[in-house]
Amino acid sequence: MRSRLPEPYLRAFDVEDGTICCRICLDSLNASDLSSGLAIKLGCRCSASGFDVMHRSCAAQWFGSIHQSSKCEVCSSEAVGLPTDVKDKIRSGTSSTTSLHPGPEAAPIATILDQLSSFPSVPAFLGNYSAFCLLPATITCITLTLFYMKVIEVDNGTGIGLTIGISALTILHWFLFPRK
């Protein structure tokens, strides 16, 4: 059964019965959890909505071992309310192998994103811009090839050659006139 918390803590979790839960494990919290130290407030920008309340153990596991940062993953501001042992664990760079849920240990999302962003086959100057241009450019090349072959009725080699030429000019344009 969930317990009621004072009004300032209910803004983000304002459901019909006015209950609140930990944002990590989604178990219920009550006012005595905050006063006893079993639950903490992060003290980040999520405080305005009440979304910064969580179990102390969940915060230690999430920030100390999984997220490995003292910045809130929701609002990106510093979580000043983290316990000192968690802050020390983050500073030292050590992480526990235990997890909130039993099962195989997953790599932190930030690590995966860092590995993908440093992937050697994607030039750094293209950045995220290439991700938004790659699919439309591919669709355009296929459409152009089909247009040349079906509407203009050129042979396959000529159609593909024209498409490659136009694609090369587009890439050359990206190099000569980069987006600011």
UniProtKB/TrEMBL annotation:
Domain RING-CH-type: 14-82
Keyword Metal-binding applies: yes
A Pfam family: RINGv
Recorded GO MF terms: zinc ion binding
Gene3D superfamilies assigned to the protein according to its UniProt record, in alphabetical order: Zinc/RING finger domain, C3HC4 (zinc finger)
Segments passing through the bilayer: 126-148, 160-177
SUPFAM superfamilies: RING/U-box
Keyword Zinc applies: yes
Superkingdom, natural source: Eukaryota
Sorted UniProt keywords: Membrane, Metal-binding, Transmembrane, Transmembrane helix, Zinc, Zinc-finger
UniProt-recorded name of the protein: RING-CH-type domain-containing protein
